[in-house]
Amino acid sequence: MDTQVKKVFWDGSWRYLTEKNLVGSPCAAPLPGEAVYEAVEGGWRLKGGDEAERVPCPDCAKPASKTSTPGVWSCGTHTFRIAETPPEPKPRVPGTMEYKILTQRDSWFKNRFTPEMLEQRLNDLGSEGWRVVGVVMSSVGKGGLAVAAALGGITGPDAARQEVIIFLERVVK
Predict the structure, then answer these.
(1) How does pLDDT run across 40-52, given as a tens digit for each residue?
(2) CB of 96 within 8 A of CB of 172?
(3) Dihedral angle, C-alpha 31, 89, 133, 28, nearest 10 °
């Protein structure tokens, strides 16, 4: 049984690859020594390696292949995008600012977002030098479509829910 953590940069964020090589839940950027995979014709390949693994469709798990459009794959029934692995981050320069975005969907909250947990998280980040520089309430509708909070009044299955987005910054040491 393979217990190695596999990560891939998929559709704009880091995600785990499941045991069946399906794109899984969001995760933090890889740490040194963790396996990073990239999309290749017919599968996933360990970044820097030669051996390809199967790329399943995220909707139906059928084998998918690249289309003529860069970054677009198809299983014959569904079409989906695979983002390219982002470039290595630039080294942080002491004295400059770095930023963090915190939302109630952050994995730290483990789907149990409460005011008390938010306070604890902000205090933990504050002890690491982070400070809040902005807070926004956003209405998110069905399918993740952002709707301006000022519109409001949407009811039924397409009703929007409120989401907190907190912007933090700290000085790089």
Answers:
(1) 655 677 675 544 4
(2) yes
(3) -30
CA distance 38 to 48: 9
CA–CA dist 131, 107 (Å, integer): 20
Closest CA to 61 of 26, 28, 19, 30: 19
120-145 per-position pLDDT tens digit: 999 999 999 999 999 998 876 654 44
What number is the average pLDDT over the span 152-163? 58
Q: How many whole angstroms separate alpha carbon 55 and alpha carbon 41?
A: 8
Amino acid at 109: F
Instruction: Give this prediction's pTM.
Output: 0.44
Query: Whose CA is closest to 159, among 143, 136, 171?
Result: 143
